[in-house]
Amino acid sequence: xxxxxxxxxxxxxxxxxxxxxxxxxxxxxxxxxxxxxxxxxxxxxxxxxxxxxxxxxxxxxxxxxxxxxxxxxxxxxxxxxxxxxxxxxxxxxxxxxxxxxxxxxxxxxxxxxxxxxxxxxxxxxxxxxxxxxxxxxxxxxxxxxxxxxxxxxxxxxxxxxxxxxxxxxxxxxxxxxxxxxxxxxxxxxxxxxxxxxxxxxxxxxxxxxxxxxxxxxxxxxxxxxxxxxxxxxxxxxxxxxxxxxxxxxxxxxxxxxxxxxxxxxxxxxxxxxxxxxxxxxxxxxxxxxxxxxxxxxxxxxxxxxxxxxxxxxxxxxxxxxxxxxxxxxxxxxxxxxxxxxxxxxxxxxxxxx
Length: 353
Known about the structure:
15% strand; elongated; disordered N terminus; disordered C terminus
């Protein structure tokens, strides 16, 4: 969705680089829905709320991270907010033409319905929660293709191990992006997270869904952000080289959060059996690809190689940095063992009841 047309130079917020804009024609659009007093109250509440968040940045780490990195280009206050499909939202984060920067749209009608007009301190944690999406969208490319799109095995641009080791971090990320389009899926086939709420990052607080697939989309973005860190950052190639190489040579074709309550593991590596091996690339290479599954509500155990990295949080509450370590160590420690022993999942992923 393109953000609404705005006028003026925006409203300054002391201590913050971005400004708050009002969508052009807001006053006319609000006629009959909101009074002029309520519209003005919404704008003032947004400005005061950002001021409050800025004064208490230590209490809102995701807001602090986004501001410190300059991820938010501007905030736009609109009568209502909706996506391309016409679904309404209290907030919406949209990408800009500038890589790494996004805009935040805020619905005035939603603020009124929530009783937030003139209540900056009450509105602050609600607004701060949206910065999980600000960070995720700023750090990822355009919206990923949905899982319903079939894999294009022949055109998947897999590389040899030696070729991968010679690539720069940016080149590895570019290759990963092409694999997202053709081969590497980041949602489980059963879509077990549809209808499931998601965690606030770093917390056991669960965020109510605004749409049935909000949790699925949230965790797909989080997984892709983590995988990009693994591909780009040199310490992963140095410490967990098998993870980096396996993501780019076709050995892994699915990394996804799942919800499997009947299993107590936090992560699992599932290798396709030999009779289901696939031919990938051109010229073709026969591969038994693996799926890396992350169990949403489970916590790591002391035996897990990533136990210390998770700080006893549920898997679904991990940051992208923590998740990258979890995925990399799971691949590094378990992929080769499962492949060499021909391990096939006896407790394979099943559709949730």
